[in-house]
Structures are given as C-alpha cells and as structure tokens.
Amino acid sequence: MSAVWIAVVVASLGCYALKLAGLSVPAAWVEQPWVARIVDFVPAALLAALVAVQVVTSGNELVVDGRLAGLAVAALALALRAPFIVVLVLAGAAGALVHVVTG
Amino acid sequence: MPADRSRTVRDSIGLGLAVGLYGVAFGASADAAGLDAWQAMVLSVLMFTGASQFALVGVLGAGGSPAAAVGSALLLGTRNTVYGVRMAPLLAPRGPLRRAGAAHWVIDETTAMAVAAPDRETGRLAFWATGASIYLGWNAMTLVGVLGASGLGGTAEAALDSVVPAAFLALLWPRLRRGFAEHVVQRRVALGGAVVALALTPFVPAGVQVIAAAAAVALAGRPRREVPA
Questions:
Q1: The pTM is what?
Q2: B79 lies in a domain?
C-alpha cells in the first residue's frame, strides 16, 4: 500500500472517529470554553495557511507566479459576492492568462 | 407542519446541488495533487467532510508528508466532534448502529440545517434530508471533478493551480465576513496563520507549516467569560 493510500485511509477513519466521538462522549468533556475557543478558530488559521502555501510556495521556496493573480481575482469576486463557480472560473482564467502571457 | 417539512426538503436538495460544485473543485484538486480517482472517491465516501479533504490533498499537493496531511485533516475534523455534541440530544440515535450511521453525516451543513429548524421533528428531517442530498451530490461531483481534471493540458493545469487556492479562499471567506461570530478575531487569526505558514516554509518539511499555523489560534485570546442566562 502506497503512502498516499495510507494517508487517505488513516485520515478518513480518524475524521470518522472524531464525528462518532461527538455523538458518544459526555457533553461536558467537549463543552469547555477553551475547547470551543480552539475549535472555533482552528479553521481560520489552517485555511488561511493553506491558501498562502498553495499560492506563493513551491516546495521550500517562496514563488510569485500566476497563482497570485488568480487569488487576487478570487478575493475581488468573493468581496463582490459572486457565486462560488464564478469565483473559481475567474481565478482559473486569471492564472491561465498569466501562464500564457509569461510563457 | 407539512409546509415546514416540504421547505426543509427543498432547501436540502438546493444545498446538495450547491455543495456539488465544491465536489467538482475537490475532485479537480485531488487530481492536481497527484491522487488517482479511487483515492479521491474513498475520501469523499469515507471521510466526507470537505475542509479536511481539501486540507489533505492540499498538503500532499504542496509536497507535504502523509503524516502532515493526516494531521491537518484531523485538526479540521475536530469541528465535527463539537457538532456531534450539539446534535446528540436532537438526533438521540437509538442503538450503536444508528449512532454509527448518523455520525457519518455530522458536518457543517447538516448541523446548520438541523439547528435552524423550528422544532425537533423538523430538525431531524433536516439532518437526514440534508445529509442524503449532500452525500449524493458531493460524491457524484467528486467523480466528475477528478475524471474531468485528469485529461487537462499545460494551460488548463495552470488554471487549475489558481482554482485550488481560490476554493480554499472561498471556504475561508464566510468566517471573515461581517456577521460571522467574532469576525474581527477570525481575521486576525487567519492573517496570523498565513504569516506563520509562510515564515516557516523555507525551514520545515512541506506541509508541517500548515499544522504549525494552528498556533495562530493563540491570537484569539482567552475564552470570554460565560454570561449567565
């Protein structure tokens, strides 16, 4: 079994266990203020980190290319409350345009 | 009330269609990260929680280790534990088998729909209808995305490289918007997470910086004192 398959299966089972735990453990274990605090804010930290890493890194290096133009367009579209699919299409078009222009 | 029930079912179907679009994006991201169609489908069928799936393929796509990918997926999956605690009294699943089945569908959308329902009976209907609709839409459209993306050429791949972070940004965006609970603090934590990740990028194995970014939660500060009801 490849490393990717192991990651896929282990993470899937782990995420399911986290869901099942919610329905199974006493509420008092989870409903502590600091647990709620962490759970409320972990997604913002991780999703922003993923955006940053996907846009301006390649391996261990910081790289600026068409992806940054795509992200800027996506942010603008989101600010204008464009539907999800429009955001993705515009971001993709911007990235492709920079790729073609810069060759 | 029949009006409540039919509106609930209608909303569930609409949500399933909308989430299907994210499914296409996920399938395409999985392909861009080097996963095959089977791996993408196992994630959508078994993991079935969007942000964690995106994180797993995002970290692998960035050249991260499988351990870092699993770690970030699990960190994002802790949300569902809290949802489960909130949903347990409403769902009150009888027996371990029903509980095991219900658990699989405890995610952002089903919890939001169930909690917003006017009464317990409608809440349960909202949970099961939304769960079924999203499960179908998410899995069908993951397949469309991963198969569609696998036949792309150079320019289309450059487009996909920009689509994947845009999809992450769209997942993040609602949390930063005015109206979300403590959106100013959410913005601070998000900015902190991005800065931590980029600052660590030259020094740590790929993927580890994403998990380390969770430390930015410290910027949220201490929990607010509970206000007695």
A1: 0.83
A2: yes
* B172:A16 CB<8 A: no
**Quick check: A81 contacting B, CB < 8 Å?**
no
Residue type, B101: G
Number of Cβ within 10 Å of residue B81's Cβ equals: 24
List of E strands, A4-87: 57-58, 61-62
- For residue B227, is it within any domain? no
Give domain status of residue B208, yes or no.
no
State whether B63 and A59 contact (CB < 8 Å): yes
Q: Does B179 touch chain A (CB under 8 A)?
A: no
Residue B67 CB-density burial (10 A; 0-12 exposed, 13-18 middle, 19+ buried): middle
Residue from the list A38, A59, A71 with its beta carbon closest to the beta carbon of B165: A71
Query: What's the pLDDT score for residue B129?
Result: 95
Residue B74, token pair as written in the block: 């699990």
ipTM computed for the complex: 0.87
In this prediction, residue B94 has a pLDDT band, given cuts at 50, 70 and 90, of: confident
- Strands A61-62, A57-58: pairing is antiparallel
**B112 domain residue, yes or no:** yes
Question: For the segment A12-69, what is each residue's pLDDT rounded down to a tens digit?
Answer: 999 999 999 999 988 787 778 888 888 889 889 999 998 999 899 988 889 998 899 9
Calpha distance B58→A67 (Å, rounded):
14
State the total domains in chain B: 1
